[in-house]
Amino acid sequence: MKAITNRIAGGAFLASALLSAIAAGQQPSAPQPAPAPAELQTGSDVWIAPQGVQVSVDRRSGRMSMSLPIQPIDGSKEQTIRFEEWRKHPYAGTGDFPATRQEPQSLPTHTVYRPADLSKTPKLPILLWSNGGCRNTSVEFTRFLGEIASHGYLVVAVGRSDIPFMLVNYNGGLGVTGSNAPIKTTAPLQINDPTYMIRGLDWAIAENSRPGSDLYGKLDTAKVAALGQSCGAEQSFRAAKDSRVKTVLGLNGSFPTKESSRNPDPEWTADKVTVPAALFEGGPADLAYSGAEQAYTALPATLPVLKANMNLVGHTGAYPMPDIRWSRAVIAWLDWTLKGDTNAMQMFAGAQCSMCSDSDWWVESKNIH
After folding, report:
1. Which residue range(s) make up the domain with 63?
2. Among 158, 262, 306, 337, which is least packed, fewest CB within 10 Å?
């Protein structure tokens, strides 16, 4: 497939202006709004930053960041309202098998998303999910995970709904949000340990073999994916060291490379992966964008690899509703790698690649045919 490559000309324009000011000794006191699109170049290889994008540059490192106006902000009143709504109302999804959300007593550290009626489903592949911010709750992803489950998957997600939403202050420090009477718990607010994901896999395999279990004989235990968002993408990558994992996905996150400075397992880097890998990113305004670019380059040249950027969702915008195009793209990768659905592959690769003709998606791939 001919790759469709889009570079960050819009972001580069903005960064260049700010960096020039820095070089001249000027100090931008606050993130600057994006210039009007008319001021930016146009063309097939150019990204035009939408109105309202905020850009900032770290003066010491030169690192540029952008944020989209549609992004939920940690700690905002809107985020608190969303969290409570998600916690109270599981999402059935739009697939053929309406989903439910469960917190099994036999797996007290996880939440399960699956089709509510298992009598008519084919055997379900197993998806191991880790959360953004390595949070110990999947509540903010309730709708996204419900959507995936409704297409015939068992999702075993790290964390419970009775754990408060942990705030990540990227300038340092943590906090908690929730109702006026915050949830009381002794559970950790963050889980960055891949063995938790493997614990979920072990539980699912055991339930598939246990007479009397709702999942008895309902799972395809040979079809396993590890996936996660942001910090959870790295956690998923580390879980993919387990040979039972058949594909690994990083959503708004990246996989450590040999050059990574904060890899807890320096012997396990992107170049060591042996299973199909996908990186789904939110474009230049996604704080994981540059890391994903590096990870894509580092992944083995012989592997089936996908890098798909939906350039208007940024770091977190794909999940609250959820964004149906984002969800369907992730599901298509899972359907192809775990269910052998060649029609699903046509969404992101091949001569009929539908995402490739959508200007909101930038798609690159290797060895997918």
Report:
1. 9-67
2. 262
